[in-house]
Amino acid sequence: MTFKEVVLYRRSVRHYKDTHIDTDKVRACLELATMAPNSSNMQLWEFYHVTHPVVLRKMAVACLGQMAATTASQMVVFVTRQDLHRSRAKMILELETQNILKNSPPEKHSQRIRQRQMYYGKLMPFLYSSFLGIPGTIRKLAVTVGGLFRPVPHEVSENDMRVVVHKTCALAAQTFMLAMANEGYDTCPMEGFDSRRVRKILDLPAGAEINMVVSCGLREKGGIWGDRMRLPFSQVYHRID
Fold first, then answer.
1. DSSP the chain
2. Cα–Cα nearest to 211, from 47, 89, 58, 49
3. Residues 69 and 133 in one domain
4. What is the pLDDT of residues 187-230, one digit of tens each?
5. pLDDT tens digits, one per residue of 55-99
6. Considering the domain boundaries, does residue 155 fall inside one?
7. Which of 195, 141, 130 is nearest to 163 (CA)?
8. What's this model's pTM, rounded to 2 decimal places?
9. CATH number, domain with residue 198
10. Of 219, 154, 160, nearest to 188 (Cα)?
11. Cβ neighbours of residue 132 under 8 Å, at least 6 residues apart?
12. Which of 33, 174, 184, 196 sits at 20 to 30 Å (Cα–Cα) from 212?
């Protein structure tokens, strides 16, 4: 399929056929999901690929018994991991250092490495840290003052950074669903679930948060509820000349 055909083919499927789908292909689609753009390349996400029938039944109950869950052949739970920001920043700093040594002129090495060390070694841990709202308050005060003299990002509270992490994870989920559509597989992103039950089923660590649950399978006849509806493009498109 062309990209346009993939986008038009993807629908939120509510009823799947009782047919097996290839686990390896779903895994490959999740590998493609890691190519999604994400804030500062921090990749604060994890993907839990559920294939065991017993776990799927438990997940269906946790997803409120909706048909998109009870008939799913497999599920993927997209999870944010803001709590891993220090280890991820360290990993990206090592990668960025090697990129600089490999691709930058030698006379620029020390300057650019220092910039990356400041960004990933200091700024990222400062931005993503959270403790009773205190770091977020300090960040808000800092940007409020700094914003008097130059443009700065103002969304730096703990809640703001949580939103950033969830937006990033959602980009990965969308990439996954498009990759699945390209394989002729169907998906349904679900936000109707009991997060406490899902956490227990997957044994998620304390710092993890559930972004969405995506059911997977092959669409049954009537599995799509009605024609697709979108607002007229003229209502959502604004050209700034």
1. --HHHHHHH--B-S-B-S----HHHHHHHHHHHTTS--GGG---EEEEEE--HHHHHHHHHHTTT-HHHHT-SEEEEEEE-GGGHHHHHHHHHHHHHHHHHHHS-GGGHHHHHHHHHHIIIIIHHHHH--STTHHHHHHHHHHHHHTTTS------SHHHHHHHHHHHHHHHHHHHHHHHHHTT-EEEEE--S-HHHHHHHHT--TT-EEEEEEEEE-BPTT-S-SS-----HHHH-----
2. 47
3. no
4. 999 999 999 999 999 999 999 999 999 999 999 998 998 889 99
5. 999 999 999 999 999 999 999 999 999 999 999 999 999 999 999
6. yes
7. 130
8. 0.94
9. 3.40.109.10
10. 219
11. none
12. 184
Q: How far apart are CA 14 and CA 168, in angstroms?
A: 25
Chosen domain end from 159, 191, 211: 159
Residue in the block written with tokens 């062309």: 2
**Structural tokens at position 124:** 């990222």
**76 token code pair:** 């993927």
Is there a domain that residue 151 lies in?
A: yes
Starting at the edge strand found earlier in the chain, the sheet holding 186-190 runs: 45-50, 74-80, 209-217, 186-190
Distance CA 48, CA 59 (A): 12
d(CA 182, CA 186): 9
Distance (Å, whole) CA 34 – CA 120: 20
The answer on 53 and 15 residing in a single domain is yes
Q: Which domain holds residue 145?
A: 84-159
Amino acid (one-letter) located at 55:
V
Q: Return d(Cα 139, Cα 84) in angstroms, integer.
A: 20
